Amino acid sequence: MSKTACIIAAANCARHPAGHAHPEFLVSLTKDQVQHIATLARLSLAKQEFDDVVAKLSRIVDFVDQLQSAPTSNVLPMAHPLDQAQRLRPDQVTEKNERETLQANAGAVQDGFYLVPKVIE
Amino acid sequence: MADETHTLHSLTLAAMARGLSGGDFTATELTRHLLARVETIGKDLNAFISVTADAALASAAKADKARASGKAGKLNGLPIVHKDLFCTRGVLTTCGSRMLENFVSPYDAAVVERLQDAGAIMLGKTNMDEFAMGSSNETSYFGAVKNPWDTSLSPGGSSGGSAAAVAARIVPAASGTDTGGSIRQPAALTGTVGIKPTYGRVSRYGMVAFASSLDQAGVITRSAEDAAMLLSVMAGFDPRDSTSVNHPVPDYVAGLAAPVKGLKIGIVRQHFDAGLDPQCATAVREALAALEAQGAVLTEVDLPNLDLSVPTYYVVAPAECSSNLSRFDGVRFGYRAEDPKDLMDLYCRSRGEGFGAEVKRRIMTGTYVLSAGYYDAYYLQAQKVRQLISEDFRNAFATVDVIAGPTAPTPAFAIGAKTDDPITMYLNDIYTIGANLAGLPGISIPCGFAGKLPVGLQLVGAHFAEQKLLACAHQYQQLTDWHEQGPEAFA
Predict the structure, then answer these.
(1) Which of B404, B409, B397, B408 is CA-nearest to residue B469?
(2) ipTM reported for the complex surpasses 0.90
(3) Residues in chain A within 8 Å Cβ distance of B273
(4) Is A17 part of any domain?
(5) Were both Cys, which of B136, B258, B335, B438 would link to B471 (CB 3.0–4.6 Å)?
(6) CB B368 to CB A66 under 8 A?
(7) Conformation bin of residue B292: beta by default, left when phi > 0, alpha when psi is -120 to 50
(8) Rounded to a whole number, what is the distance in Å from the CA of B181 to chain A's nearest CA?
(9) How far is CA A71 from CA A52, A60, A76, B339, B381, in A?
C-alpha cells in the first residue's frame, strides 16, 4: 500500500471513531529507530515488550502522519492557548529550605546528598 | 440521628450544604456515612487508591466546631475526593503509576488547598489512568475502575475513579483533570456532570504535569449547581502557576439563573457524522430540541479541521509529556531500580520498570516528534494545525454563545474492548480534544440513555465563558431529570 493511501485511510478513520476494520498500515518505524528513541527517552524495554512497542508506535506515527497534508504555509505555530506572554517575577528567594522533607521521597540519600552510581573513576 | 442519615449519600452537594447549615445533620455524621460507602462500594468499583478516613473525621470535627462558633467557610463540612494526580501533603500521590507508588507529597496542590480552606473535607484519592494517559482507566497501575452502571464496562478516563465515585453516590463531588477530555468523557460515560474550565482559570500548581499547555483542573458532580459551587472556590489567580490567568472570578452560583431564552447555540455538522452511535445522536438531538423549546436559537456552525484534532493532540500532548516526565529519573523521587550498574542503567531501568506501557508509548512518541530531523514535520506542523483548529472555534464563537453536541462517540464500552489498538482508544476523545487545543471551557451533562447507559451532552464556550455553560446546563437540569438518575445497584 502506498504512503498516500495510508494517510487517506487514517483520515477516514478519524471520521469513524466507532472502530471499523483498519486497512493494513505500513510499519513506518524500524527496530533500530525504536531502539534509538528508547535510548533518547532513557527507557529500557523488556525483550517481550519491544515488538509490541515497535508495532504500536508505528501505528501512532502513521496516524499522526495525516497532519502532513494540512495546508499550513502561512499559519503561525501556536504554543499557548491564550496567546499569553510569560509572566515575570521579582528575582527574590521565596522558597523555604525543606531539604529533609523533600529528600524523604528519594531512594538513596546520605548527608543531605542524593546518591547515584559512581560516575567518575 | 442515625436513622435519618442513612440516605445522606443521595443528596447533592447543595442539599448537603443546606442540611449542614440547617442543623439536620453534622459534618461528622455525613463524613462517617460517606466513608462507609468509600470502604465498601469504592472498593468494589476500585475507584480509590487511598482513603483518608482518620484525617477526614478530624477535619469533620473541626468543621462542626467552626460552624458552632459561626466561622463556617463556604464549603464547611462538605465532602470531596481528589483525583490522585493532585498533590496532597502527607498523603500518597501516585498518579496511578508504579513510578509514584510510594510518593508522599511534601505540599498541597492549589486546588486541594483552596477547597480545604473553604472547609471541604477530603475523604480519599481516586484511581485514574497512569499519569492521566488513557480514556478508560485501564492504564492505572492499580487496575481498572468499574463503571457503576455495569461493572463489566469502563467508566472512561482518565478521571475514571472520580466519575465512578460520583455516579455510584459514594460522594457528591470529585476533582478531576482534563488534558484531552479526561473530565468530560468519564462524566458522559457515567451519567455525571464534568466541567473543564478555560486553560489558566484554575491553578495547575501541585498537579502532576502531563501536557502543560493542555492540562486543566475541574470537577465532576451530579448537578451544574454543585459544579458552580466548587468552581467559585477553585478558580482564580495563583502566582505559583506561571500560566494562571489574572481574570476576575464571577459568582458562578448567582449566575445560574440566567435564562436560556435567546442563547445562541451552535451545532457542529461534523459531530453527527457516521462515527456517532445512533442512540447517542438521538439523545443529544432531543436535548437540543428541549433547549430550543426554551427559546435558545440553534444555528449550524462549521469546524472544518475537527478531524485533525486527534492527530494534532497526539503530537502535542506526547511531546509535552516526554519533556515533563523526564523528571522521573529514579534519583530524587519515585521508583528507583535495584542494583544499577551505572547512572545510565539507573535512569533507563527506573523509567522502564516504573512506567506502564501506555506512558512509555507516549514518552517515545513525544521523543520521536521532537527529535532532530522530525521536529518541523511533526511538532511544528502540529502547532500550526492547532492554530487552525483554534481559528475554527474563534470563527464559530463570532456567531454563537456556546457549541453543543455529543461528548463521546459511544456510551460506555467494555473493559478490555479497546486495549489492542491505541488509535481506537484515542478516537474516543474526538469531540473533547478541540477544547483543550484551543484552551476553551467545556462541560458534559447527562442528557438521556442509549439502552441502559447514560449519554452526555457537551457544551463548549469561548474563553472564560464558564458562566454561560453552567447556566445553560443548570437551566436544562431544571427541565429534565437525567442528572438525578443513578445506577440502581448503588442507590
Answers:
(1) B404
(2) yes
(3) 15
(4) yes
(5) B258
(6) no
(7) alpha
(8) 15
(9) 33, 21, 12, 51, 10
Question: Does residue A84 fall inside a structural domain?
Answer: no
Q: What is the pLDDT of residues B178-196, one digit of tens each?
A: 999 999 999 999 999 999 9
pTM of the predicted structure, to 2 decimals? 0.94
Give me the residue spans of the domains in chain B.
Answer: 5-258+466-490, 308-380
Residue B225, classed as helix, strand or coil, is: helix
Domain that holds residue A9: 3-68
CB atoms within 10 A of CB B256: 22
Q: Percentage of chain A surpassing pLDDT 70?
A: 78
The model's pLDDT over B309-333, given as tens digits with 9 standing for 90+, comes to: 999 999 999 999 999 999 999 999 9
Integer CA distances (angstroms), B427 to A16, A93, B131, B234, B466, in order: 8, 45, 19, 30, 26
Contact (CB<8Å) A117/B342: yes
A80: closest chain B residue by CA: B213
> Are B181 and B22 a contacting pair, CB within 8 Å?
no
Residue A24 has pLDDT above 70, yes or no: no
Nearest partner of B483 among B222, B230, B283, B253, judged by Cα: B222
> Which site among A78, A102, A109 would you substitute to test the B interface, given the most B Cβ atoms closer than 10 Å to its Cβ?
A78
Q: Which residue has the cell 474492548?
A: B417
Comparing alpha-carbon positions, the chain A residue that sits nearest to B380 is: A77
CA B249 to chain centre: 20
Nearest C-alpha in B relative to A49: B357
Residues near B406 by beta carbon (within 8 Å), at least 6 away in sequence: B188, B271, B276, B280, B281, B284, B431, B455, B456, B457, B458
Distance in Å, alpha carbon of A114 to nearest chain B alpha carbon: 7
Grid coordinates representing B111 are: 486546588
Total number of domains in chain A: 1
What is B5-258+466-490's CATH number?
A: 3.90.1300.10
Residues of B labelled catalytic: 83, 158, 182
Q: Report if residue A64 sits inside a domain.
A: yes
Residues of chain A with Cβ-Cβ distance to B369 below 8 Å are: 64
Strand pairing partners for B82? B125
List pLDDT tens digits, range B40-57. 999 999 999 999 999 999
Indicate whether A34 belongs to any domain: yes
CA distance A85 to A14: 34
Round to whole Å and give the CA distance between B221 and B444: 10
Cα dihedral across residues B181, B185, B187, B188: positive or negative: positive
| Model confidence at A15: pLDDT above 80 | no
Count chain A–chain B contacts defined by CB atoms under 8 A. 209
Q: Any idea which of A9-18, B285-294, B390-399 has the lowest mean pLDDT? A: A9-18
Q: What letter would DSSP give residue B143? A: -
Preferred mutation among A20, A34, A40, A42 to probe B, highest tally of B CBs within 10 A? A42
**Cβ pair B363, B355 in contact under 8 A:** yes
